[in-house]
Design a protein that fits this description.
alpha/beta, Rossmann fold, DNA polymerase, domain 1, 9 helices, 45% helix
């Protein structure tokens, strides 16, 4: 399958472009090592995702605050109490989370082909600036949770992107690693979507992406 007549490629950032799970795991390990917790790190990112979804569902708060609240709840769930200082350290680690190895070259190739690249991210404006610096690509647009006042899987990011660029859904391809946060809502709204399924997950609902890759490398060849 090849996508035709696309002008805009929208990307989730953390987990898709930036190694979000690695960042979560390393940040949790640093706290665990610091205090000598006997913490099992196997599957810790999956556990964190569930806690974070619950925190985000309560009310909108900046993602830096979400990281702090979710880290405290995660460790409490695992049987350990951490301080506000520990939670802040956990949240601040996001500024150093690294892009996946293929990201820069793939995005550069897409830019060369003339596509407009846009990030739709559950993130704060201040944090995304550092991550974009690490990626090393000039994006044509960024829509953050801070700007729309909600977190995916709510539809606010996509609606703001369409409004801002005066785009139609048929012109947009959404690319993301999270089935729950991105693939389900993108398909619910009628967007074409590519699932970057790095962990070989299985869909939990009947909704399916249009294409599925293990990383971003095949993406340029899927576009006409």
């Amino acid at each position: 399958m090849k996508f035709k007549n696309k002008k805009y490629i929208t990307f989730d950032c953390y987990g898709t472009l930036i190694d979000w799970e690695g960042g979560i795991r390393n940040a949790t390990k640093q706290i665990s090592d610091k205090h000598g917790f006997n913490l099992d790190l196997n599957g810790i990112a999956d556990k964190y995702i569930k806690v974070e979804l619950a925190v985000e569902a309560e009310q909108y708060r900046k993602y830096h605050d979400v990281l702090q609240s979710a880290s405290k709840r995660l460790l409490k769930q695992e049987g350990f109490d951490i301080s506000d200082e520990d939670a802040l350290e956990f949240a601040n680690s996001i500024y150093s989370w690294q892009p996946f190895s293929e990201i820069h070259d793939v995005l550069a190739k897409l830019k060369d082909k003339g596509y407009k690249l846009i990030i739709l991210s559950n993130i704060d404006n201040e944090i995304i600036k550092k991550s974009i610096e690490l990626i090393g690509i000039d994006f044509d647009g960024i829509v953050t949770a801070e700007e729309v006042g909600s977190y995916k899987p709510s539809h606010g990011h996509w609606q703001e992107m369409l409004r801002r660029f005066n785009a139609t859904k048929g012109e947009v391809l959404h690319v993301a690693a999270s089935y729950v946060h991105d693939i389900i809502p993108a398909k619910e709204q009628g967007f074409d979507a590519v699932w970057i399924n790095r962990n070989h997950e299985q869909p939990t609902r009947e909704i399916r992406p249009d294409l599925e890759f293990n990383d971003l490398s095949p993406l340029p060849e899927s576009l006409v």
